[in-house]
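Appendix B, record 7
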Amino acid sequence: MIRGSCLCGGVRFEISEAAGSFELCHCRRCRKVTGAAFFPGLYVRNEDFRLVEGKDLIAIYEAPILRKPPAYRSAFCSRCGSPVPNPGPQSKWLVPAGLLDDDPGLRPDKHIFVELESPWFRITDDVPQYDQPGLISFRTKNGDDR
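Structure tokens (predicted):
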């Protein structure tokens, strides 16, 4: 069992199996939600996720649509402001990796929206990089295009 919680502990959840994708998203909206260079998130199947406590503390912000639906949706704890698990597409939950109290046994499998990477951060690992979901970027470890 993998446990997780927000900063104040008001929202708590359990994951029975982390078998989904582990993305590092560099889009502007994800950077603003986290206040960091990227949003580390795991996709977890609905049947593997259980909200233990704090449903009443979860607030949702739906940002306006920029190009096409769906809108950007951000879930957060209304008490401490931490991002919290957010129901995603196809009955999966997007779980912010920083909330995990236990090792999920997964490691990041992709960087996405790297064309929007913040100017003050450079990706230096060997994890595949995608400019847009499904379109691979051919950048080297030092950030140069191939």
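Remarks on this record: Helices lie at 28-34. Residues 28-34 form the longest helix (7 residues).
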